[in-house]
Amino acid sequence: MRTRTKLYAAAVGMATTGALVLSSGGASGHGYTDLPVSRQKLCQNGTVSNCGAIQWEPQSVEGPKGFPAAGPADGRICSAGNTGFAQLDAPKTPSGQAWPTTKVTGGQSYTFRWQFTARHATTDFKYYVTKPGWNQNHNLARSDLNLTPFLTVPYGSKQPPATLSHSGTLPSGLSGHHVILAVWTVADTGNAFYACSDVTF
């Protein structure tokens, strides 16, 4: 009996350790924008429903860095190439409605905000916006974007705080629905984090 009890205790201990490893691994990543509110945050807070796995991990939209020369493929930019987050790439929400937008004004200062669950050493943050006349009826592609960022915030390989805000001037001459693509480039891995936010100028 004593041997059987020891084996049972060891099995329980191993199962518990495994659960801890799994849970800590799931909690390790990473960051998203909530100003302007990103598609993943809209899914996480319930504004948009039926989003799939992204509703539980809005911080995990991670893909190869080097955008626009590298990074996620066209049509998969908003999900960072993660097939499990493909709902973020679609031009409409899973219910077929337009993505909710944040109202912004071109030529004026705007404060962007990131929330982090793991604070990696950071190269920079870059922000891109769609061009006038971009194709709103398909998944976002490089041809839709002005590939020169309208805002770059260098970060010198420092770790950001849990919440980080920085301000920049929004492009002028835009009207109607556009998408702002925010890219957080990590310094000490080969990856970056991507967030698409729908806005109305």
TrEMBL record:
One of its GO terms (cellular component) is extracellular region. InterPro entries: Cellulose/chitin-bd_N, GlcNAc_Chitin_IntDeg, Ig_E-set. Residues 30-199 form the Chitin-binding type-4 domain. It comes from the Bacteria. Its main location: secreted. Keywords: Monooxygenase, Oxidoreductase, Secreted, Signal. PANTHER family: CHITIN-BINDING TYPE-4 DOMAIN-CONTAINING PROTEIN, GLCNAC-BINDING PROTEIN A. This is Lytic polysaccharide monooxygenase. It comes from Streptomyces griseicoloratus.
